[in-house]
Amino acid sequence: MNAMTDTKEFDIDPKALRQTLSCFPTGVAIATTLSRSGDPIGVTISSFNSVSMDPPLVLWSLARKAGSLPEYRAHPGFAINILSADQAHLCKLFASPERDRFTGLEWFQGAHGVPCIAGCAAALECETHAVHEGGDHEIFIGRVLAHTSSERTPLAFGKGQLGAFSLG
């Protein structure tokens, strides 16, 4: 029997699965947009991937239980701010319940007015291309309208730890 076509249900322990997935290190980014009232909002993500070069598409996902989900659904665009190694404090801030995350933060308006955070390793400004159901998350696919990169060292996350990406 082909394992891919077997319809038998398997018991997957979420805690053990999270530990297994942590063996795949990822970059760390903040997805930003504007709320329906025009305020900048953002959330820390590690679920970010390139999808296509032609057209230029990227994806990220947000938990369905996230309070900011309706804001990301309502706005026509978002930015992916790929954090640099010296921005670990922003990773923690944007993952916290703190509501006013932009006070004292240097940022500028990008495409569709979305906030782009200064000092990042890279940033991509996108218009929402599609949103798909993905279990307990929604998957946002964005068409890249503008992008920048720098020589800054990217922030990485793996095995439950933040660290610097290096080309050892």
Topology, element by element:
Layout: H1 14-21, E1 26-27, E2 29-34, E3 40-45, E4 48-53, E5 56-63, H2 69-74, E6 77-82, H3 88-95, E7 107-109, E8 115-117, E9 122-134, E10 137-149, E11 155-158, E12 161-164
Structural summary, described in words:
- The chain is mainly β and 168 residues long.
- The mean pLDDT is 91.
- The protein has one domain (27-153): Electron Transport, Fmn-binding Protein, Chain A (Pnp Oxidase, Chain A).
- The strands form three sheets. A seven-stranded antiparallel sheet has the order 3-2-6-9-10-5-4. A three-stranded antiparallel sheet has the order 1-11-12, with no helix packed on it. The protein has a two-stranded antiparallel sheet with strand order 7-8.
- It contains three helices and twelve strands.
- The chain has helices spanning 14-21, 69-74, 88-95, and strands at residues 26-27, 29-34, 40-45, 48-53, 56-63, 77-82, 107-109, 115-117, 122-134, 137-149, 155-158, 161-164.
- The protein is 13% helix and 44% strand.
Provide mean pLDDT, rounded.
91
N- to C-terminal distance: 43 Å
CATH fold type: Pnp Oxidase, Chain A
**What's the CATH architecture?**
Roll
| Radius of gyration from the alpha-carbon trace, in angstroms | 17 Å
Low-confidence parts:
none
Give the overall shape.
Answer: globular
Largest sheet: 7 strands, antiparallel
Label the structural class. mainly beta
Q: Strand order within the widest sheet?
A: 3-2-6-9-10-5-4
> What would CATH call the homologous superfamily?
Electron Transport, Fmn-binding Protein, Chain A
Q: What is the number of beta strands?
A: 12
* The level-1 CATH class: Mainly Beta
Order of helices and strands: HEEEEEHEHEEEEEE
Helix fraction bin: 10-25%
Query: Strand percentage, roughly?
Result: 35-45%
